[in-house]
Specification:
The protein is elongated, with a radius of gyration of 29 Å. It has 76 residues and is mainly alpha-helical. It is built from one helix and no strands. The protein has a domain at 1-51.
Length: 76
């Protein structure tokens, strides 16, 4: 064995520690994003429900909502 063997082992151990720390940080980011996505999905579902209720609760008025293609540009 040479003197460089303990040094190489220490370098490998340091790299493994750095990789474990990076993996932990990435895991935290993924978990945070997962929670945010779930909150956004819930909010989106609630908005869709409110829009459906608003469209259905308009009484007898069955007038279609105009699309952006139906609008006349302001210079006409």
């Amino acid at each position: 064995m040479t003197d460089s063997d303990p040094t190489r082992l220490q370098q490998v151990e340091l790299k493994v520690m750095e990789m474990e720390m990076t993996l932990h940080q990435l895991n935290e980011v993924v978990l945070t994003q997962y929670r945010e996505i779930k909150q956004l999905e819930t909010a989106y579902a609630q908005l869709e429900k409110r829009i459906a209720q608003a469209d259905g609760g308009s009484g007898g008025d069955t007038q279609a909502i105009p699309s952006i293609d139906d609008e006349v540009p302001p210079h006409y």
